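Box 3.1 — From sequence to structure: Aldehyde dehydrogenase family protein
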Amino acid sequence: MKTFLNTLNGQLVASPSTFESLNPATGEVIGLVPQSTPEQVAQAVAAAKAAQPAWAARSDEERKALTLKVAAVIEANADHLAQWVTREQGKPLGGVGPGQVPGARFEIWGCQVWSQVTASLDLPMEVAFEDETRRDEVYRKPFGVIAAIAPWNWPLLIGIWQMIPSIRAGNTVVIKPSEYTSIGTLELVRLIAEVLPPGVLNTVSGTGQVGAWLVENPDVNKIMFTGSGSTGAKITAAAARNLTPTTLELGGNDAAIVLPDADPKAIAMDLFWGAFLNMGQTCAAAKRLYVHESLHDALVAELKAIAEAMPIGNGADAGIAMGPIQNRMQFDKVVSLVDQARAGGATIVCGGQPTGGPGYFYPLTLVTDIADGASLVDQEQFGPVLPIIRYSDVEAAIASANRLDVGLGASVWSKDIASAKAVASRIQAGTVWINQHGAIHPMVPFGGVKRSGWGVEFGVDGLKAVTQAQVISVKK
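Predicted structure (token representation):
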């Protein structure tokens, strides 16, 4: 059984103990992951701190060129990395391009594209004010050492979202991957660190305690975290002790509202993928679907037909569109929420029972005859289950969308764009899509409101988020 290694100051480093990484489709052990020690976490931060001044001193063009080299390394190793994503996270290999299942190959392609786009961005000096007496110039400076903590659902892509803007802007990084999906990240960093100076990019794998040691280190200058609200609260408390800035993406419970003029047949496929991409294990997936009563039955029938036609199985097999839930904890949560809905009188349109056998497989499940207040509606299920709520009044649907304490994304579906935009403007979410859901883009800022976190990623705004403003004010 192969033991994978952390990257620390340009070297591959083992730890005194390891833990097993499992394939969620088969239950088999696929590798051993280092359990980083407190000393190794401190060493990784120290290496990043030592490397940062020289990295920041490089010209912007040099850092651009090296970021493009990172993208080239990802492209050259795309199949190797995609295979690890499928084995460890569970999503099917899929492909890239129209008509392809958006799985592991899509994730690695996203890593490449986000790196290329980030390399193309500039943060030029801006003149904030000038008159005959003074000139005030704003420059963007790196924070220093960035601590990144990545989740298990899109482990490599979200890791890239954290790492690449940080190093592009002159920071150095220590990243802790999820203990559920460490190997792919360790391999990604091993490969891309080869084209970067030692210490610019470092990993510390392990359980949540490793993340705690990392964010508590006083030499960390900013923390980037994507994950649960409960863990985000712990990170916020730790960051407060050192007054460390944070960017937090804490998931959501995205509402999708289908207006009365929508065409069920025309929107069904896009709605389906908006809800069930990556088996629903996506932060900005549609997790509550509000459908006008005039369209409810027709849209449910369209979604049912799509769900029942999707092949589910081991993502390494050909022709698979949907894989397993990634881990036992999440699997048990999904089972519990559906069982509670059934016990409360909801209708299970399709799915609704574990498939049995090895792996954490659960069928695509649609639930109707359910309302606000049910656990399946009010809690983020983060799995292959979609509650569909019938409504009669658009005002009530907007109120339902806004009633929870999270607000990452949302969507509105309508033939009338002006009407859809009017509804969208009243929804409390960081992004509201119209006639699409979860359609992120590397040039478009992305982040949540309320308890979905703060700060944004992507594009120029995301690059600014890993820098600090410095004003140079000149008296004339």
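Summary of the box: The mean pLDDT is 97.
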